[in-house]
Amino acid sequence: MDASQYSQLTLLERIDFSEDLALFRLRADEPVDFTPGQYATLGLKENGSDRPLLRPYSVASAPGNTELEFFIERVDEGALTPKLWDLNQGAELWMRDKIVGRFTLDPDRTYHLMAATVTGVGPYVSIIRNQLRALRNGTQDAPQPMLVLHGASRSWELGTYLDELTTLAAEVDWFEYVPTVSRPWEDPDWEGECGRVEDVLRKHLDESPFSPSETAAYTCGHPQMIEKAQGILERAGFEDDALHEEKYFVERNGA
Ligand SMILES: Cc1cc2nc3c(=O)[nH]c(=O)nc-3n(C[C@H](O)[C@H](O)[C@H](O)COP(=O)(O)OP(=O)(O)OC[C@H]3O[C@@H](n4cnc5c(N)ncnc54)[C@H](O)[C@@H]3O)c2cc1C
Question: b/e map of 112-125 (b: 16 or more CB within 10 Å)?
Fold first, then answer.
């Protein structure tokens, strides 16, 4: 490992939404710059090894801050995530200095339709927070209209983003948020949309004022959702170059 290409981050806090879903807030020594929607490569150095165990994670915070936010799912049989859950406040993580990725706002289209499973909302949160800040401080004149469809099995798995995005959608006219839960029988107080993201996408495409020729569609998170959603979007008339995806993992055979 070339240590000059990595920085150390400090774990400020972990906010748990369930046993296996949490927001991680990390602090860097210097403000971190990137294009909203991109991912950082984070990891831990294991005892006796000088190579950190690294994985990509979408940054949910806006660029230019020393604090970085990540929405992470623990994979029980995974190599890195169980170790992340073992960390205490103040623990050190490694991050590759280059934050990269092409899952960023499509500059060629007017409207932005964004679909996510659970933690896949991270890149959209970064994009939205960045746009909100730019509109408020006057560095951006006109908002880019965005619709986020965000699915989880139960509503608490949508994290603090459920409140943040619901509140924002009530305050501004350029943003709409549609959370949906696929196991409403386990969440009896839930009054929002029910069903998987792709089912809600089908319904909202019929009602949406965003026309396929002027809209970029983004899908992020679980590979099955991405494949189904892209089929629906293609049948609705979206062109290939308007479809953007970020698959978080590859399913193993039989998974
Ligand atoms: C560009 C990019 C951005 C990503 N951003 C995020 C993010 O913001 N938040 C986040 O939680 N993850 C994100 N991921 C996934 C992340 O990089 C790791 O794959 C995940 O955290 C598992 O790491 P691990 O070392 O614990 O498991 P591994 O040892 O890498 O994986 C073990 C097995 O679990 C499978 N697997 C991995 N993730 C899942 C999952 N979520 N559900 C079911 N099976 C899975 C793998 O395919 C593998 O077969 C992103 C991936 C990519 C490619």
Answer: bbbbbbbbbbbbbb
Q: Could you tell me if residue 217 is inside a domain?
A: yes
- Dist. CA 140–CA 133, nearest whole Å: 9
Lining ligand 1 with CB less than 6 A are: 39, 55-58, 70-73, 75, 77-81, 101, 119, 122, 246, 248-250, 252
Query: Which domain covers residue 30, as residue numbers?
Result: 3-96
| C-alpha–C-alpha distance, residues 161 and 57, integer Å | 17
C-beta neighbour count of 148 within 10 angstroms: 24
% pLDDT > 90, the chain: 90
Predicted TM-score (pTM) of this structure? 0.97
Find the 249 Cα to ligand 1 centroid distance in Å.
5
For residue 253, the model assigns a pLDDT of: 63
Nearest CA to ligand 1 atom 13: 57
Radius of gyration of the chain (CA): 18
Based on the structure, what is the number of domains in the chain? Answer: 2
Rounded Cα gap, residues 72 and 70, in angstroms: 6
- Give the nearest ligand 1 atom to 251 CA: 47
Backbone torsions φ then ψ of 8, nearest 5 degrees: -100, 140
Domain contains 127: yes
Q: Is residue 104 part of a domain?
A: no
Residue 126, in any domain of the structure: yes
Read off the pLDDT of residues 155-192 as tens digits, 9 standing for 90 and up: 999 999 999 999 999 999 999 999 999 999 999 999 99
Exposed (0-12), middle (13-18) or buried (19+): which is 24, by Cβ within 10 Å? buried
**CA-closest candidate to residue 158, choices 147, 149, 145:** 149
